[in-house]
UniProtKB/TrEMBL annotation:
A GO biological-process term: methylation
Gene3D superfamilies, alphabetized: Vaccinia Virus protein VP39
Catalytic activity: L-histidine + 3 S-adenosyl-L-methionine = hercynine + 3 S-adenosyl-L-homocysteine + 3 H(+)
Gene: egtD
Its EC number(s): 2.1.1.44
Keyword annotations from UniProtKB, A to Z: Methyltransferase, S-adenosyl-L-methionine, Transferase
Protein name in the entry: Histidine N-alpha-methyltransferase
SUPFAM superfamilies the UniProt entry points to: S-adenosyl-L-methionine-dependent methyltransferases
Binding site for S-adenosyl-L-methionine: G87, K93, D114, D142, F143
Subunit structure: Monomer.
Positions that bind L-histidine: Y57, N167, Y207, E283, V284, S285
Function: Catalyzes the SAM-dependent triple methylation of the alpha-amino group of histidine to form hercynine, a step in the biosynthesis pathway of ergothioneine.
Keyword S-adenosyl-L-methionine: yes
Amino acid sequence: MSTALLDVHLTGADADAALRADARAGLTADPKQLPPKWFYDARGSELFEKITELPEYYPTRTERALLLDSVGEIATASGAHTVVELGSGSSYKTRVLLDAFAKAGTLRRYVPQDVSESALRGAMDALEEEYPGLELHGVVGDFTRDLGRLPRGGRRMIAFLGGTIGNLLPDERAAFLAHVRSVLEPGEQLLLGTGLVIDPAVLVPAYDDAAGVTAEFNRNVLRVLNRELGADFDEEAFAHVALWDAENEWIEMRLRAERDMTVTVAELDLTVAFAAGEEMRTEVSAKFRPDGVRAMLVDAGFELTRWWSDRDGRFGLSLGTAL
């Protein structure tokens, strides 16, 4: 009999309301923009998995290798009894963390958090078989607002990997890290994965691959709006754009209208005009410098306890301890 717990704080109705609010706000903004979380329906998730296997896309394999090299030290330095993973899905990184913390002898509980109830149920079913005796407590929710619903107790370490923090704008990052700190007790920890600033000649192709997979991924947000909100975007009339913003030190992904057009979003009773050449931002992927990561953590109320990076300086893992 299963003893795993699953708390659901985000329903399909919640997601629909959020999509409607984001689409209305973003399509009526100047310049237009859409949040990157709406890339990830089933097709978008499949496309992203393909992206991670592309020769140009170094972030996933770099973080994976760094995590494998460092995870024993991470587990020893942390000593956490509870590992919380934000945006866990069913990823490979989960097992790397669990194996290391189990080997260190401290692991008692794993708390995966994700927006997808089905993904969490599938992952927890598999983990229950693979890790008998491990307490499992899943949380379906939005990491930007539902962290207060994470189970407490048991000396926790929250893992936020994949460089996902780079998808947040500076004010959003600061608010998110402050939110994380507010739900942790002094001495509990945050393991943060950050992409680092490198040569744009390597960085930009990671978001603009020769095979065009990232372009399809980018346009997938339009398919989501067409399906979920009755929009009539001509997906092929939008070109994929990826560029390096040196001032903000982030990659911007945009969709550029190739011609003048008018788009109707039936479910929002909204008509949106695009001029030829107009660009709509769909993602920011900020890259960081080690001193900037330290400052970001300190500002949120953490001490940078340990830092790990690959030999090429492409990715960083930081262990911050709540003060």
